[in-house]
Amino acid sequence: MKHRVAGRRIGVIAMTGLLLLGGISAPAVAAPKQNPTKLAEKLVKQVAVGGANRHLIAFQRIADQHGGNRAVDDGSPNGTSAGYEASVDYVVEGLRTRGFEVQTPVFSYPVEVLDADSATVGGTTYHIDIMAFSPQTPVGGISGPLAEVPEDATTGCEAADFASRNYAGAIALIRRGGCNFSVKGANAAAAGAVAVIISNNVPGPLTNVTLGTDGVIPVGGISQEDGDALKGKSGSTTTVDMRFHEEQRTARNVIAQTQTGRESNVVMLGAHLDSVPAGPGINDNGSGSAALLEIANKLGPNPKVNNAVRFAWWGAEELGLLGSTDYVQSLTFEQQLDIALYMNFDMIASPNVGYFVYDGDDSDATGAGAGPYGSAQIEQTFTDFFANQLGVPTRGTDFSGRSDYGEFIAKGIPAGGLFTGAEGLKTAEQVELWGGTPDIAYDPCYHQGCDNLGNIDRQALGRNMQAAAWATGVYGYSTEEINGVPPRDARALLRADANRLAAAALTEAPVGAAA
Q1: Taking the model in full, what pTM does it have?
Q2: Within this chain, do residues 339 and 431 fall inside the same structural domain, yes or no?
Q3: If DSSP codes are grouped into helix, strand and coil, which group holds residue 172?
Q4: With a cut of 50, which residues of the chain have pLDDT below it?
Q5: Omega before 285 within 30 of 0, i.e. cis
Q6: From the candidates 148, 317, 379, 407, which is the catalytic residue?
Q7: Which of 146, 166, 316, 317 could form a disulfide bond with 72, CB atoms 3.0-4.6 angstroms apart?
Q8: Are 287 and 317 in the same domain?
Q9: Domain range holding 136?
Q10: Is 429 a catalytic site residue?
Q11: Both 127 and 217 in a single domain?
């Protein structure tokens, strides 16, 4: 009996020592819980449209000084354009001046060096731009009769659009608008067409656009003016010649992270920094880049956050999401696990604005399905802010694969973000919601030279920037609803509760109890 009691006493002493080493004490008092939206509220008040607009002015001047664009590759023989490099330097200098430690990781990318870009119809030659992910034509091109698809609001978007004539072996002429280019191309191929010419639905050329997925037949874009000239020429002998070869070149992303907060549970925001060669890209995507730079400057490198905040400015998005894809793929699995969530801001100031939030739970049935777990919660955070604090209704937009969230989603990282519309046409219902003009593009200057300082809705820029700032502050405090990781003060309360329970268990245990 003595032996057992002595053993019990030894066990109590040992456990008490361990509890003391662990910081456990019976009378522990829990610290008051922090305000989970304190940082978010502060950041929303601090970010200013004027600050973001100053960055847009800088991007415009950079483009003006470097051939009119900020493209990663502007088609010049020496590769990466000076306009993009100057944009990188501007963002880096601004962040470092604020006190951030900045990295500019280099990635390589293939460049399509043009070999042929013509569409010859009835003996007249027109310029045509092959779309990204489109197959090339053989040397000498591919020929057939021109076959115009009857034009309506969704030309070529339904299989029925091709029922009025025979498209077997033809070159289909389709007006832009109503759906993704990949849908138009696939429908034309299913109808028997051997190539597709898509004409712009706004003045100017149709350049630097993408199918988003691998095409079935060659697809290229021409200007609205050339498309109008080809109307009524169905049956004319047509040859489309679209070819290129690839060269490897390099460019830089820009990455900056706060020096405070858990590095194992990072809140990440991103926007692509490059424009298309056709113009300065002030809405696409100077708007997202400027908003992120303004948020980063107001947040600072040492904010009071529980989770580190990482900012990214991506290169070569316009060439196929290359910078962001390379970055995510360069991370080990453990480094990917360190990213709690990713939020994307690509075109957030379109002049015929729509207020769209990426559809994380597929509740809008937009087509691509839900994002990884946590994406629905990100969507709700944005929609709640717009509804409750701005009084602005929102609608879901598809994870279509057209922006830099793509590789994050592919790796299972929760994602979300904001978008004000690109070449899609605004509906009458959306005009009732947000104002504007029906049946024209959200951004009539999408991928054109007129995407300049006059192509910005600054109220939309401010609202979207505030929403981004709000989400940054909310998730900088806690991502518990996303991945179960609680804020530090909640963890402290849990530890204190566990300590009290353990101490109480020791004091209440019978002294003579069996070991």
Answers
A1: 0.72
A2: yes
A3: strand
A4: 1-32, 511-515
A5: yes
A6: 317
A7: 316
A8: yes
A9: 112-247
A10: no
A11: yes
